[in-house]
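Run: sequence + adenosine-5'-triphosphate -> complex structure.
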Amino acid sequence: MAGWGAFFVSLLNYKTEKYVIAENRRIGILFRLYQLAVLGYIIGWVFVIKKGYQEREEAIQTSVITKLKGVALTNSSEAGLHLWGAEDYVIPPNGEQVFFVITNYIETPNQRLGFCAESFRVPNGRCQSDDDCVEGEPVTAGNGIKTGLCLNSTGTCEIHAWCPVEYGKRPREPLLSEAENFTIYIKNFIRFPKFEFSKSNVLENYNDSYLKTCSYDSEDHLYCPIFRLGDLVSWTGNDFQDMAAKGGSVGILIEWNCDLDKDSSQCNPQYSFTRLDINLNNSVTSGYNFRFGRYYKDPNGESFRTLYKVYGIRFDIMINGQAGRFNIVPTIIAIGSGVALLGIGAFACDMILLYMMNTNFKSIGKYLQINALEMHIINCLGFMS
Ligand SMILES: Nc1ncnc2c1ncn2[C@@H]1O[C@H](COP(=O)(O)OP(=O)(O)OP(=O)(O)O)[C@@H](O)[C@H]1O
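>> structure
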């Protein structure tokens, strides 16, 4: 029983380490340098640069709404004068995060369902005799269904299709060259749910007249949410008229990096712009185009259509964000890991002193301010050979 009592009493005692001072300049300097390095790392890197005292949130909830404005007038031999508004050249027109702006096109008006010659540009549509045009077979990568006749006048199969088939060539100069001056209004709302913090890229002090007249630039109008198309393309390092002729793809990256320990007015978006398709001149892979039709009915109730092959610029708006706010838990973890690093240094210096320094126990005895009992303990632990 007495034994248990002594054990419980000993639990209430505090056990501490005994320190010895080694009067060794080299190991002393090494240890201080290590301490300085660890302190520099903790204060400079962990606390100041990485803000290790903050709880962070990387995933944001976000919404993007876009609106384009601007008009362009085109004059083509097939369709005459045409005034293009945003409702015509933006696809889809409902303000999506990813949208396409028509800058050039091939127009094939008044197509009706009927029988006509396949285009000579389609290899599978060419023929020398009727045997090359198997009836009912669709023309691979072509415009219609073969009727079984080879037309000598064109050297191509007769097809059942929307006639006449597309025959125009892509204009070298973009027809909607004025698209350079179109403007995009980007509304972006973000929310960091962990911190219950929300913000928009359209600052609260902006009014209608400022939005109607401002244009983003990285010096004077850093937070204006209106972007001129020509500027956007030039910031990617490309020429607008070149890209407008063949088409391309541009990425707009909105980056939110918010320190929520500061005022919310300090949490603002940063924009960057990049070309997403690889710009290989004279290559089949460069450019961006697709086709669509606009359908009409004549007074007799018969359908006809205008086919458009459109070239243009596709815009992808990408949002990235992270926020941080002071929290005691990451602060304690950061300090704790610093203290642990300091402990590793002390251990390493002990090992260097005992095993790697060119000295024997006598000289250690000279360096260490230790008494006979401590010397005996070192002996017992076998630190000397
Ligand atoms: N692409 C753009 N270029 C320049 N200003 C724009 C553009 N899109 C919107 N704006 C202007 O920004 C302000 C806010 O636009 P919002 O769409 O919220 O309002 P709106 O009254 O419906 O705009 P509007 O009727 O002029 O299209 C308006 O003054 C609008 O004219």
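>> summary
The mean pLDDT is 89. Residues 67-69, 183-185, 208, 211-212, 226 surround adenosine-5'-triphosphate (CB under 6 Å).
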